[in-house]
Amino acid sequence: MGQFQAEFPKDFYWGGATAANQIEGGYDQGGKGLSAADFVEYIPKDQRKKDNSMEITSDQIRKALSGESTARFPKREGIDFYHHYKEDIALLAEMGFKAFRLSIHWARIFPNGYDETPNEEGLKFYDNVFDELRKHNIEPVVTLSHYETPYGLTDKYNGWVGRETIDHFVRYAETVFTRYKEKVAYWISFNEINVITISPFTGGGVVSDKEDKPMQAKYQALHHQFVASSLATKKLHEISPKAKMGCMLAVMTHYPHTPNPLDVLKAQKQNQDNLFFTDVHARGEYPRYMDRFFQENDIEIVKETGDDEILKQHTVDYISVSYYMSMLSSESPEGEVTAGNLHNSLKNPYLEASDWGWQIDPVGLRVALNDMYDRYQLPIFIVENGLGAYDKVEEDGSIHDPYRIEYLGKHIEQMKQAIGDGVELLGYLAWGPIDLVSMSTSEMSKRYGFIYVDKDDEGNGTLERSRKDSFYWYQKVIESNGEEL
Known about the structure:
- By secondary structure, the protein is an alpha/beta fold.
- It has 15 helices and 16 strands.
- Strand 9 and strand 10 form a beta hairpin.
- Helix 7 packs parallel to helix 9, helix 9 packs across helix 12 and helix 13 runs parallel beside helix 14.
- The protein is globular.
């Protein structure tokens, strides 16, 4: 028997991924308005409860706006990419990046979200960033909405609960598509669109305590995002016919905890719950298995005439995913629970865990890629994957992070095997190539980067950038097109 040799395509996009709210800073500069992320407080680890969610209450918003709040809001500062973008992009180029995922801060373009005209200073900032990337031959992959719903839309419509938000989003999308059509070829509508059902404030600027039926409101807001994504896809194809629009899913593959058929059924159901979002984006319609879920949870999606046609006619060109871990499904969940990304899960005895309790499962990435490609037959782009860990700066300034190298290397090997299985993979963008503010906890100490940023959880530090060991490792990975791991 011949030995099968999988390899990465020659034009594979190697790079990294970030979000405006976690790196930019300059929250009150250049005409930018407030967004959902600007209300996320830092909670020190010793004060953090097991159930700290990313939700924000009306009272927290009131206190933040009135100045009553004594909390720190680290996402307002980020790592000051707003002033450091040239040196940061130069470092990415030094690693050999072929692509860099970033988001446009919607409130930098339309400060309230519902403004009639865009903020030129905000548009100019991204012109400069995209020009800098092009100068280094780095392809921008741009997310339109990455947990950055303008606060004005929350105030006026409770974010995506209001159908009016669709038109404001489409105006924003049309504005940036027109402005950057020569500079950006890959777009993503909503980051991890499934998060709106877990944290409506994070995913859609929705304050749940304003709603009588929070569950209904979540799925109604989601429907508005589906329609907005399809309308944005339509606009992109009109304005820039060669450009591609992708959707984005936080992949949460579930395995049955035991061979008990009830566990298998539970895993199947939970995988459907996760793939529901990409089903709508890629197949253009609500899957029938959701009828039962909606009925059992007393949810009735209010659709306007033409919504179903819009979803059907303007499906995405590719699917992008974040992948950090797998989950276990059990009909009788008894056993040790692990802290998960967005969800808690039973501990898998076959897997190691990160410093934050996330289950490390490289083979699960291959499983997920195969499942998704079988289901959709669309190109897949891995636009987030990485290890949040504590890093130690040695006396000589060096940072040794073999744990990160090992984690990424194992995932890249499984991606290569998935390509060998026949999966059409566009690229791999490691999450947080430069240390950034954590999405879920607003910490700096949970570091993902190849590049260290001198800033701590309390906001102290010089912001100086330095290369970790993984920086040079990833440089070799890219240079060898994934052969040297």
